[in-house]
Amino acid sequence: MSGEIISAPLQRVPELLGQTVVCIGGSAGIGLETARRARTEGAEVVLTGRSPDRLNRAAAEVDAQRTAAFDATDPAALHDFFEDLSGPIDHVLVTAGGPRYGPLLEMDTADVRQALSGHAVLGLEVARNAKAKMRPGGTLILMGGTGGRRIDHRLGIVSAATATLPPFTAALALELAPIRVNLIAAGFVDTPLSASLLGDQLEDRRTELISTLPIKRVVGPKDVAALAVHLMVNTALTGATYDIDGGQQFI
């Protein structure tokens, strides 16, 4: 015998073991991929979405703890959802909603109000209703974008709406503490939402980004999901905006 001691490899403990993650808008795209990644880290996941059929398919994919089909922009439905949750939750990701494009002068007053405040109002409503159910140190993650940081007549109100979210996130983080609040600002992400917005131009956009982005590939839902789970795990992060666009805003 040589006397050599052979140590067994250390087994990595999943970083979200015993925690619960709620994905508002979790039936596809970034929400679904975040749920999938959270499950691999040991979390239980709860998915919400508008379409019951799509929600059921997503739930089967990730073995979701439960689902709820409703419109997240309906305050009463949102309240009832959180009221009905039986146990404490740790993290909430909000991916519901999308940008509104178009010339400013062609938008009516209601559209302008919705475009400017829609994401912030949804984030605030989620925060109000989730607060009592969330464990200290958990996180509320909101979604924004980087594309609207440049003023462009094709974007219309998007630039103004984009600018409201970072200070809103920081202020909300102070009020919700010790629950943490962070904002993910994404560029183009190859999701079903992007496909619906671009239609026949989708493949051209992919080709353009692959050739021009510093990372030489298109950002996908898995990339954003990896960032979202990191924000859940790292308990020192709050009140900040995290860009993920493959360098799109610099080209």
Summarize the helices and strands and which ones pair or pack:
Layout: E1 20-24, H1 29-40, E2 44-49, H2 52-62, E3 66-69, H3 75-84, E4 89-94, H4 109-130, E5 134-145, H5 158-176, E6 180-186, H6 192-198, H7 202-212, H8 221-233, E7 241-244
Parallel strand pairs: 1-2, 1-4, 2-3, 4-5, 5-6, 6-7
Question: Quick check: average pLDDT?
Answer: 90
Helical content band: 40-55%
Count of extended strands: 7
Number of domains as seen in the coordinates: 1
Principal-axes shape call: globular
Succession of helices and strands: EHEHEHEHEHEHHHE
- Spatial ordering of strands, largest sheet: 3-2-1-4-5-6-7
Radius of gyration: 19 Å
- Low-confidence residue ranges: none
Tell me about the largest β-sheet.
7 strands, parallel
**CATH topology category name:** Rossmann fold
At the first level of CATH, what is the class? Alpha Beta
Number of helices: 8
Structural class computed from helices and strand pairing: alpha/beta
What portion of residues belong to β-strands?
15-25%
Could you say what the CATH architecture is? 3-Layer(aba) Sandwich
CATH superfamily: NAD(P)-binding Rossmann-like Domain
How far apart are the termini?
A: 63 Å
